[in-house]
Design goal:
Low-confidence stretches: none
CATH class: Mainly Alpha
Shape: globular
CATH superfamily: EF-hand
CATH topology: Recoverin, domain 1
Mean pLDDT: 88
Strand content: under 5%
Order of helices and strands: HHHHH
CATH architecture: Orthogonal Bundle
Number of helices: 5
Helix content: 55-70%
Largest sheet: none
Structural class: mainly alpha
């Protein structure tokens, strides 16, 4: 049996995390530079469409996720980052859906 799209996405997220975590220092955590590379390499259009290209956005996201303040993100802390990105994606989805529905009903 093959993985469902969601199962495949989950596996890809774990692989992506470990691919970037292995770049420097502790291979089980992400540094700020590793997180920045991961997001810029893997979500450039998404970050851009949300207006999240500002230099401080990733730094502030990292700071908020780093619950134990060790300047590294464990996988559990990385889940906070994913949650924020998913929330933004969900909001963007609704904005596009609303714009589409409004355009169909000539509300613009």
């Amino acid at each position: 049996m093959t993985d469902t799209p969601v199962e495949e996405s989950l596996v890809q997220l774990v692989r992506c995390y470990h691919r970037y975590a292995a770049r420097e220092g502790d291979v089980e955590t992400l540094s700020l530079q590793e997180l920045k590379a991961l997001l810029e390499d893997n979500t450039p259009r998404f970050l851009g469409s949300l207006g999240r290209r500002e230099p401080y956005f990733i730094s502030e996201l990292f700071r908020a996720a780093d619950k134990d303040k060790d300047n590294q993100l464990s996988f559990d802390e990385f889940l906070y980052v994913l949650g924020r990105l998913l929330r933004d994606c969900h909001l963007q989805y609704h904005r596009r859906l609303c714009a589409h529905c409004c355009a169909q009903r000539s509300l613009y």
